[in-house]
Fold these 2 entries.
Entry 1:
Amino acid sequence: MNILQDEAMRTKYEIRDSSEQLIFSCSDLIECYSFLETNNNYWFAFTGISEQNVHLITNEETYSIKSNQFSGRFYCKFTVKRIIKSPDALYVCLSLSSETYSEMYSEMYKVGALSFLQAVNNIEERVWLDMKGSLKLIYISASYLKNGIPRTLEKDTVVIEGKCIQDYYAFFCELGHAFFGKFGYMGSCIDDVSKLMEDLCSEDKKINVIWKDSDLSFKAIDNSLPQGYDMSSSGFILMTLEEYCNVILE
């Protein structure tokens, strides 16, 4: 039994082909710097590989990575662009599939989330304040991997600190923190928020939300809207929250 447990702990990731046949397993998956910023291509390093002669088909076969960590929440599909073998690691340039979705609308895994979680044992409460723009999506992805989709809310009143919302993406970081604390997850777009609110709120009891420094955060959100996100302005966000919550603006 101990041998099996030790083996399970060493084997954190499984790589399977499109027919779900196991190609190899490994003890670690390291996200490397992306030299190819287009078409969702990234370099990954697989270490502690179970097979000595790994054969991956480039450009044609679709593979998947699954993990026994994060309660099964880590999952992605990819095709292989390039392979570099070394005695200690297998380096693979992956093209991540846009089909990597879970039960929410937005993509769950963002490259960098695994490395982020390994580096934040003593993380400050609002680490995203030091993250620029869309890099905050890595924090949101890490929050999903760590804590998953919330099903219940124990609070009657939630406090949103508007001074901690310095741009559009920071709103979703702060919303998750306000509802569930450090690494709290409330989605990465307004559609996610709406779906989660629908699950968390009941028809006969709305959540009380106090939004401090709301004017300041509204300006920060509207001044940093990504291109094509007009339906995610502060007014639309507020309207979505008010559908499920008693919102008090301060």
Note: The mean pLDDT is 87.
Entry 2:
Amino acid sequence: MMLTDDELRAVLRAEAAAHQPDRAVILNRVTQTAMRNEAARRRAPRVRIAGAAAAVAAVIGGGGFAQWALAGGTGSSRPEPPPPPSTTTVTTPATPPVTTGASPKPSRTSPSQQPHRSPSAPPSSAPAATSPLWADGSVDVGGKTQASSVVTIRTSESLTALDVTIRLARTAELVSRGGSQQVPGASVNSSVAEEAGALVYHFTLSSGDTIAPGTYTFFARYTYAQGGRDAGADSYAATATSGSGAALKASGAFG
């Protein structure tokens, strides 16, 4: 059977009214407990006295109900039970680190842990000047056993001196058929020489002549054995002097 709050209070009040506590016994018990607590207080820390006080409250008869009985209260004058004791949490501050008189050692950082630093931008500089002299080499096959190695020269300035050399590596049945050039408006001397392991073609601007800015072509003609010829070891070089007196160079290969 479930009782409502009002019914429960009525039953408790009836039970309390029917109870006749022995006041002499209770007072004697409280006196003895107090004397024991006084003796314990002199021997133990205050924290243990607080525990003994809680035990006295328990001996009296359950806190507020026993106090109500000692006071002779009846009926609705019974005090409410005291609230449960509050709990206080004390946080102990962390012990500061001990500092000695010695200077602390600097920490070492591995190269992988070094902070990244953006490299400083390199000082700006003017772009390299483009040479006014340019050259290129190619092979012009004229049949099964003959061809021409061609060097094309381009200049953006007038030239007061020019020398072009075409070197052909010696291969089977390599024979020179002479050299030629296309340099309108100027006189160019040409020659062919046999050197150890190569045929060398020279083209030289005549002294006192000038080559105007433009594109010019030089040919080294030859024959070779049936089945073709490998030009991978052939090369060319050009040296010149500009109208302003600057020395110019250009070189390359045919392979």
Note: Residues 52-76, 86-128 have pLDDT under 50 and may be disordered.
